[in-house]
Amino acid sequence: MFFLWAVLCVFGFTNALPLQVNPRGLDLPVCIVGAGPAGLAAAKRLESKGKKAVIFEKQAEVGGKCQTYYDKGGFHPLGALLFSNATYTETVKIVDEANVPIYPFSANGGGEGWNYNWTTGATMEIAATSAQFQAALGAEIGRYIQLWNQVFAPISGVGYKKGVPHNLTVSTADWLSTNGFQYFPALIIPAMTPYGYGDFRQVPILYMLQYFTPDIILFFAGQHTGYLVDFHTVFKNFAASLSTTQIHLNTTIEWIDRSGSTPVLRYHDPHPETYHNHTEPCQHPSHTKIQVCSSLIMAFPPTLKALEGAHLDISTEEQRAFGPVGVNTYYSGAVRTRTPYGLAFRIDQTTPFTPPDADGEPVTLIKISPYSDVATTWSWGAYRVPQTIQQAKELLKCTLSKINKDPRNATDVAVPVTDADVVGFRKWDYFPHYDTEQLVVGAYDKFNALQGKQKTYYASGLNGFETIEFAVRAGYDVADSIC
What are the φ/ψ torsions at residue 9 (nearest 5 degrees)? Predict the structure, then answer.
């Protein structure tokens, strides 16, 4: 027996011995892959029900896409930044418990709006729309809210478990046209493009109805207050509130095996002494470990690329359900610029009713803090078309170099933006969703049927929509399913 123990110790598998000998006799934890809002919410709900959990995260910090660059006491979000107190009910609870300051925020950033041509650098202040246009748009907003309550509210929810009506599988543009909305695109296109939600001519209306709740529509129309918050700090504090859940950061999952009665996960933990509250009987220098799980939660958008990256043994059913999942290539940046605080810059469109081309260029720039010269930027790339982060970064520098000045001063000269000015830049696979073709043939029926198979669950924006609110709800939902 001593010889067997010594061999296991040498190869770093001491954790595996008692777990494999008698797994039913142990209180096995739920293994959660991903420490973003969905994964943390799932762990919190499991703890509240007396269940053990352990989280594995590849990044150096918790929060998933909720990362932030800090400068001179200000924060510059590289991920989520806004919420509404009306429909973001679970988010509000977490923000309140995290005790992080919130700030009222308007759709135009609280200042003057400027358009820029990303190829020429020409800038122009956004002119006020006519009273006639505003009246017509206002009437359509009222009609939209009425339709939203009648048509969408009854089927809204995590996983769309009440079914997806055929008329909600069409593109957003087609649905708006069918329902006689002429002015509405001018309101929603600027609310889709900067936030990473794609081209309204492609994205199914199902998701835009989930996004554009009545309060969010009124926010973008300037009639409802939204709130800005440092979500990175929010979820750091949320993670700190977990009492029993272990969180392994900077962790590489080497394989996940679900061939037995319980999922088994092997992982590489570079700093076990930092994230573990127990002492190992022996420690191999590679820090490779085995964790046997009672269940498994994949708390990230389940594209095949991401699942393969987690070395999941993907089943045929999972191939069919997740193969069609598409994501938008989306970039966020923190850039030192000379553009003044109080001015919000938005990419110029050919018309208010046509989105800009998705070529990886920056679509929005705004300075959130009056005390810092760092501006937050958002760029978006073509749907399902690979693009490198370096290509997008070069486009960012090239574009901003043309507008890096005070546009109100006709004699001001733009200053080039350099690598040193780009103090933060991240690429995200954003907004996981199904296209019309998959929704028509029951994509969410297949997705929901997979929940719990091989003791595996999926929690991300795909469960509803890519917002903090639905990521949190997805985490709670799968945790309740396990319990």
Answer: -65, -40
